[in-house]
């Protein structure tokens, strides 16, 4: 007789995973969260939005990409949640929106309760760091589609911003300065390139000690994505910040251009920062040209803010209070006729590390 379990799906394992993850979900609550996990939908009390004159809801959906392959190979699963939450909430805060709640989705070939709980642990801890609630999610067992030890994670998040406080291109002016915020490393983008260069082409093992990195390759590749949400909200609420850009796939120039009005251009000075060693390692080992590297990876800058020049000291002080390394890396000017090749131009060379 055929059964669901014989087909590769264990309801018992799923139930155990839910029990193990409950302790972590309970840590990622906000006062507006109604009930707990286990229902068909997560509930969030929206009555707080009555305090807004014109609340705009912001939403974002994303995943982690092929970084999960590194986590699976190393059998380390409690950090990947920071990558997921970082990719989600930091897309919201660039417009000034406060992340309110998040839901996750984990698909796996076989539910191993302890592994699922470790993934959710990371998601919940990251939600606490971002200040949003984890209101629910879904774990799906897909035997035959994914291998027994394979999984993928995705999620969505919702936030809110007062319409009159919305940040973006409409606020940016010539003379504004660009403040860079240091990344924690590769974050969660470009791992197809990184894995191709270091693991496939060079044949390096994840447990290889790399002197340039001061740790093993695997430890470097699993460094969690920095979550900027609270620091960026402090900028939006307490400084004359006009726009922000989350530096993800496409790199610094392409993502910054997304928040610029058509009439301006920006010059960024590479001499103002030194990227972490991993970026130079990928370029050197893989023979990756600087243009391709900058178009794929964050190269040491995970977020930028476009700010009023007269308020830049307060911006830098606010970021320092949140323990985010930052510096002025560029300036906004009127776009000229010679800006056909893109309105964000990088000049100079990074100092040697």
Automatic annotation (TrEMBL):
Q: In which pathway does this enzyme or protein participate? A: Purine metabolism; IMP biosynthesis via de novo pathway; 5-amino-1-(5-phospho-D-ribosyl)imidazole from N(2)-formyl-N(1)-(5-phospho-D-ribosyl)glycinamide: step 2/2
Residues of the PurM-like C-terminal domain: 173-332
Q: Does the keyword Ribosomal protein apply?
A: no
Q: Which residues form a coiled coil?
A: none
Please state the protein's primary subcellular location: cytoplasm
Top enzyme class: ligase
Where would I find the PurM-like N-terminal domain in this sequence? 45-161
Q: What is its EC number?
A: 6.3.3.1
Instruction: Write out the annotated subcellular location.
Output: Cytoplasm
In the record, what terms sit under GO molecular function?
phosphoribosylformylglycinamidine cyclo-ligase activity
Signal peptide range equals none
List the CDD domains hit by this protein, alphabetically: PurM (cd02196)
According to UniProt, the reaction catalysed is: 2-formamido-N(1)-(5-O-phospho-beta-D-ribosyl)acetamidine + ATP = 5-amino-1-(5-phospho-beta-D-ribosyl)imidazole + ADP + phosphate + H(+)
Keyword list (alphabetical) reads: ATP-binding, Cytoplasm, Ligase, Nucleotide-binding, Purine biosynthesis
Name the protein family. Answer: Belongs to the AIR synthase family.
PANTHER family reported in the protein's UniProt record: TRIFUNCTIONAL PURINE BIOSYNTHETIC PROTEIN ADENOSINE-3, TRIFUNCTIONAL PURINE BIOSYNTHETIC PROTEIN ADENOSINE-3-RELATED
Q: What is this protein called?
A: Phosphoribosylformylglycinamidine cyclo-ligase
């Amino acid at each position: 007789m055929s059964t669901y379990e014989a087909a590769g799906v264990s309801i018992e394992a799923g139930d155990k995973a839910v029990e193990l993850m409950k302790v972590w979900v309970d840590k990622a609550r906000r006062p507006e969260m109604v009930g707990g996990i286990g229902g068909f939908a997560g509930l969030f009390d929206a009555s707080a939005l009555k305090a807004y004159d014109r609340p705009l809801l912001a939403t974002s959906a994303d995943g982690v990409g092929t970084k999960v392959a590194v986590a699976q190979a190393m059998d380390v699963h409690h950090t990947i949640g920071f990558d997921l939450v970082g990719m989600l909430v930091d897309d919201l805060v660039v417009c000034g929106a406060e992340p309110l709640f998040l839901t996750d989705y984990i698909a796996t070939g076989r539910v191993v309760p302890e592994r699922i709980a470790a993934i959710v642990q990371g998601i919940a801890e990251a939600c606490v760091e971002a200040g949003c609630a984890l209101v629910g999610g879904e774990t799906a067992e897909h035997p035959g589609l994914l291998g027994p030890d394979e999984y993928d994670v995705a999620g969505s998040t919702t936030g809110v911003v007062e319409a009159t406080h919305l940040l973006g291109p409409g606020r940016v002016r010539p003379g504004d300065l660009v403040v860079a915020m240091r990344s924690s490393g590769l974050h969660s983008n470009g791992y197809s390139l990184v894995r191709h260069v270091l693991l496939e082409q060079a044949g390096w093992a994840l447990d290889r000690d790399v002197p340039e990195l001061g740790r093993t390759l695997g430890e470097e590749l699993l460094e969690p994505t920095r979550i900027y949400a609270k620091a960026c909200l402090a900028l939006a609420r307490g400084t004359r910040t006009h726009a922000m850009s989350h530096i993800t796939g496409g790199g610094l120039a392409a993502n910054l251009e997304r928040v610029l009005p058509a009439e301006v251009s920006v010059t960024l000075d590479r001499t103002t920062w030194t990227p972490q060693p991993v970026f130079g390692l990928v370029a050197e080992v893989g023979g990756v040209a600087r243009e391709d590297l900058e178009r794929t990876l964050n190269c040491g800058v995970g977020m930028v803010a476009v700010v009023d020049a007269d308020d830049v000291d307060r911006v830098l002080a606010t970021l320092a209070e949140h323990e985010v390394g930052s510096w002025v890396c560029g300036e906004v000017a009127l776009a000229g006729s010679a800006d056909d090749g893109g309105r964000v131009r990088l000049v100079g060379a990074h100092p040697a590390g």
